[in-house]
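To close the section, here is one more complete example, presented without commentary so you can practise reading it yourself. The ligand is zinc ion.
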Amino acid sequence: MAEFEGRQTYFRPEVSPPDGPSPLGRRGYGSCTFCHSSDTVWQHDLNASLCRFRTMFGKGKVWSTSHKVCDRCEHLYNASEYAALARLQTTNPPSYDDELADHLIGLAAFCRADRGPRELEQPDFPPGFEPWEEYTGADFVFGVWPEERRAVVDGVELVASPWPSLDLTAVFRVLWTWAERDKPDEVTATLMIARVAEVLAWPETNALSWLAEQR
Ligand SMILES: [Zn+2]
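Output:
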């Protein structure tokens, strides 16, 4: 027991992260897996065959294979401060009795599957341009984005807001609330693409007044 310091010692295999720079974005984009900070510095790739785990009550969960982490959480993770990390993930008050325990179980699975950290590159994108993948998984958006407001830098597809007074978070809110304004399950993929393309051609005043109606 001499080595016990009041921390969990989850199994972390000896691993080396994938070679080369991370293909996924840059520092300061996306959000930290543990605390949701947008000040991301590290990427952890997980071994896909080890991503599944079960919660306290046997509910099956699966980690995605790529995670961004802020410097604070990276430090906690490397110091085996799993309880502190689990607390950062837990809503206050917890959304159910065993939420903290479930985050600890998830962290044990994360450690087991982790292929190790890679430092994210500094962004070298033109001002206002960001990877669309930081905002949505809908890969059609780049194709319908206004040509003068999209770019590809080092193989990363970037988009900028078509409307000066709205940031990309607000832009995507406009896109999805308009595209799914009636029953979302009745919106086909084709209709969705057409509607998003339609919104992106709006003048700024239309976008602003639609957004105002959504509040
Ligand atoms: Zn964090």
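Once you have examined the tokens, check your reading against these statements. Residues 1-6 have pLDDT under 50 and may be disordered. Residues 130-213 form one domain.
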